[in-house]
Amino acid sequence: MDDLREIITADPEVDRVIKTAKNVAASRATVLIIGESGCGKELLARYIHQQSNRSKKNFVAVNCAAVPEGLLESELFGYEKGAFTGASNRKIGKFELANDGSFLLDEISEMPIALQAKILRVLQESEIERLGGNGPVKVDVRLIATTNKELSGLVDKNEFRSDLYYRLNVVPLRLPPLRSRPADVEILAKKFVQFSCAKNNRNLKVVTDGALEKLKSHQWPGNIRELQNVIERSILLCEGDRLTADKILISEFQFSHKDFSLRPGMSIQEAEDLLIKKTLEFTKQNRSQAARLLGISVRTLRNKLNDPLEEERK
Questions:
Q1: CA nearest to 113, candidates 160, 152, 147
Q2: How confident is the model at residue 300 (pLDDT cuts 50, 70, 90)?
Q3: Which of 59, 49, 64, 60 is nearest to 7 (CA)?
Q4: Strand-pair category, 127-128 with 137-138
Q5: Which of 198, 230, 231, 58 has the alpha carbon at shortest distance from 140?
Q6: What's the pTM value of the predicted model, to 2 decimals?
Q7: Distance between CA 199 and CA 212 in Å, rounded?
Q8: For 250-264, how does the pLDDT look when each residue is reduced to its tens digit (9 = 90+)?
Q9: To the nearest 10°, the Cα dihedral for 283, 288, 291, 292?
Q10: How many CB atoms lie within 10 A of CB 24?
Q11: Which among 15, 59, 218, 277 is placed 20 to 30 Å from 141, CA to CA?
């Protein structure tokens, strides 16, 4: 089966980004990858690791938006036995697991500002301290961070530490969204067709020009991840050996007036609750996808839903 971790592109801007990434891979410089969700930021981070002299060591990734705030610190730094109720054994954190390798902090804009100071210390001192620990533990990691937000804007709002931003922004790499890369839509679509056919035991021989034009005309708010999902769904529904335009089913994020309506006198809170409910129904309760469509973080969505797990970690 084909490896989807290979970076393929026909876009000059993406090609320039890849060349820059390769040039800095051998250094210890921190890299900040900026781009919309689903545009390939983690893939680029893995490429940097593979091109570095750390490629034989671990590549460890943590999604800051996916881990509840109360658990993120212990996930990153680990803890000693007895550090808190339920800590029956020592746990090694992700930073230690990445020692001598590369460590990806995915969507670092979602990291609580209080925890950002500890990340800054890792960068400055090359050491971490486990929760409940008696002293620092030396680590040697190459830090790569990704964000789908402009960190400089968050700094202006005092939502992100300026000193950490400057330490992360040593080598900024910006990945353009898929909608600005029509040539990549075609080559990626063909790659995903091959992958999906192998995965699902299908024998598709032709992707028609009409199908490719339909794919290229879409705006792809979910970027490469959305394209891959659309291709796999289309392959599963396709009969015969030709993928035609009518078999390309692209879900549009919209509600009918019957499903979603505002009424005079409805409070802002009621409107927000209704929008969240309908979005979760649309994504089949996929919180990550719902948060992306709503333009908020997964953690913010949990808070708005009064998630018990999130509440107890506060």
A1: 160
A2: confident
A3: 49
A4: antiparallel
A5: 58
A6: 0.79
A7: 21
A8: 865 554 545 556 666
A9: -90
A10: 17
A11: 15
